[in-house]
Amino acid sequence: MAHLLVTGGAGFIGSNFVHHVVAHTDHTVTVLDKLTYAGNEASLAGLPEDRVDLVVGDIADAELVDGLFEKADAVVHYAAESHNDNSLHDPRPFLDTNIIGTYTLLEAARRHDTRLHHISTDEVYGDLELDDPARFTEHTPYNPSSPYSSTKAGSDLLVRAWVRSFGVRATISNCSNNYGPYQHVEKFIPRQITNVLRGIRPKLYGKGENVRDWIHADDHSSAVLTILDKGEIGETYLIGADGEKDNKTVVELILQLMGHSPDAYDHVTDRAGHDLRYAIDSTKLRTELGWSPTYRDFEAGLAATIDWYRANEAWWAPAKDGVEAFYASKGQ
Ligand code: NAD
Ligand code: TDX
Q: How confident is residue 1, by pLDDT bands cut at 50, 70 and 90?
């Protein structure tokens, strides 16, 4: 049994990981989360109080972080500003949390010699051409496009430097696009599902040809636990489940699964600098650490996600109007 500190554990993927840890291990967990607009205590509802506690605070608060590292056997770092569109509107919080926040955790890991796993994204590698069969590997050069992905790339490079320069015991994972329950309605799939539930037409950026490599959040969590258990210090692991789909196909599938005509959506203003395609080659994680995904049927995973949003309007409704007003102000 170990005690884990999970930063950003009230967000979409962090809360999924906390539920996963409680279900599959006997570890205890402290969540450190600032509860920004993206954090939601309700995502941790139902977890046993004797195994999970929530500390509301900022990962860039060195004193608070130091006290929490004192008690942790390992730290899993999810906390981030995570939305590309927000980073195009106001980049500053992305620097504060993704760069300075990660730096603050690394300094604490160095002081306490604490094992740290850093959660990152495939977006650090930039994008691939639509007609290129190549996929990202651990050797793909960094080439981020947006303020969000550049701050994530910066945070990864800080982790690598702290491993090499100070012997910090860290690993990194770069995962592709996640879907599943508890994802904020600003993101593509929940936005479209909740639009349909509200009688609003789904909104596709540009032509909708951009490709994302979808993985269920449960599979991301099982991969992170595998890396925490078996990963080699200093190594990077790419996490993906061979789920490439273009955005148009996803919107059409959502509409069809929800009983609407598949063309009942609008094309809206494209995202500035919109990455064309992401695709992950996760051979290293699969062969070296023996991980594999359990969700192999995207349509079934999407249908279950739609059911979750249908049944949990109280969870997402408070954020919906504000998100749509923000997008409307951008012509999206
Ligand atoms: P999210 O926006 O849903 O959650 C982020 C969480 O971090 C929130 O609970 C928020 O309150 C918290 N947070 C933000 N700033 C903080 C701060 N300064 N101190 C403490 N807590 C803070 O994000 P997500 O989609 O769950 O992403 C989690 C991590 O996974 C991020 O590091 C992201 O880069 C990475 N990632 C996400 C995806 C994806 O598809 N969503 C894919 C690959 C990697
Ligand atoms: O309304 C929309 N219409 C649309 O066409 C929205 C919100 C998005 N899109 C497009 C943009 C992308 O091509 O859908 C795709 C997915 O968009 P997002 O959900 O914003 O995700 P993305 O920008 O790909 O980044 C996500 O995956 C990698 C996460 O938000 C990041 O945190 C993660 O690092």
A: confident
Number of neighbouring beta carbons within 10 Å of residue 45: 9
Q: Which CATH number does the domain housing residue 8 bear?
A: 3.40.50.720
Structural domain span for residue 72:
3-178+214-239
- Strands across the sheet with 28-33, in order? 52-56, 28-33, 3-7, 74-77, 115-121, 170-175, 236-239
Catalytic residue among 33, 58, 123, 324: 123
Per the annotation, the verdict on 123 as an active-site residue is yes
- Domain assignment present for residue 263? The answer is no
Ligand 1 near 144 CB (within 6 A):
no
Residue nearest to atom 20 of ligand 2 (CA): 187
Considering the domain boundaries, does residue 75 fall inside one?
yes
**Could you give the number of structural domains in the chain?**
1
Q: Could you tell me if residue 226 is inside a domain? A: yes
Would residue 35 count as lying in a domain? yes
Nearest ligand (C-alpha, residue 12): 1
Q: What is the pLDDT of residues 221-256, one digit of tens each?
A: 999 999 999 999 999 999 999 999 999 999 999 999
Whether residue 138 lies in the annotated active site: no
Helices (H), 25-101: 62-71, 84-89, 92-94
Give the DSSP per-residue string, 273-312. T---B--B--HHHHHHH----S---HHHHHHHHHHHHHH-
In the residue annotation, 122 being an active-site residue is answered as yes
Closest ligand 2 atom to 146 CA: 23
Cβ contacts of 54-57, under 8 Å, gap ≥ 24: 54/9, 54/10, 54/30, 55/30, 55/31, 57/32, 57/33
